[in-house]
């Protein structure tokens, strides 16, 4: 795959989205555990649990680079996010890439929300995480997108069509 291959990027992002979907679905299995059954598991997880996990940290670390690569493609095409949304047919490949990024972001937010509800159910919302942060903080972070500019562009597009 060469740099700038938007079709390949979309396929890989679709794969990531499916992995996220599976992870969200698997949380339902963990929700069947009682708090007493979960506590021994939590003790063995150490810093590999929840948002302290290396995988989760890697996602947060990689997201800016992924978005930076997308911005490079946007600049190269001399288009803006708003322009792509206004005429998706003229910018089909970029529009597909935007949708794939938003799908990944949506499922990541769903994972964060499902994780928060799992934590609340099995350890409580007032318990401190392994980093000393109240578990209730997860509720707020579950609403934080990986790619906020993509969501902002939707708001801007809607404001154009439906001025206040």
Oligomer: single chain
On the 0-100 scale, what is the average pLDDT? 89
- The Cα radius of gyration reads 19 Å
Unreliable parts:
none
Helix/strand/pairing category: mainly alpha
Count of β-strands? 0
Instruction: Give me the CATH fold name.
Output: Methane Monooxygenase Hydroxylase, Chain G, domain 1
Shape: elongated
Fraction in beta strands: under 5%
What can be said about the biggest beta sheet? none
Distance between the first and last residues' Cα? 45 Å
CATH class: Mainly Alpha
Q: Architecture in CATH?
A: Up-down Bundle
**What is the helix content?**
over 70%
Task: Write up what this structure looks like.
By secondary structure, the chain is an all-alpha fold. The protein has a single domain (6-161), classed as Methane Monooxygenase Hydroxylase, Chain G, domain 1. It is built from 7 helices and no strands. It has helices spanning 6-30, 35-45, 54-77, 81-86, 92-122, 137-141, 148-161. Helix 1 (6-30) packs parallel to helix 5 (92-122).
Question: How are the SSEs placed, and which strands pair?
Answer:
Elements: H1 6-30, H2 35-45, H3 54-77, H4 81-86, H5 92-122, H6 137-141, H7 148-161
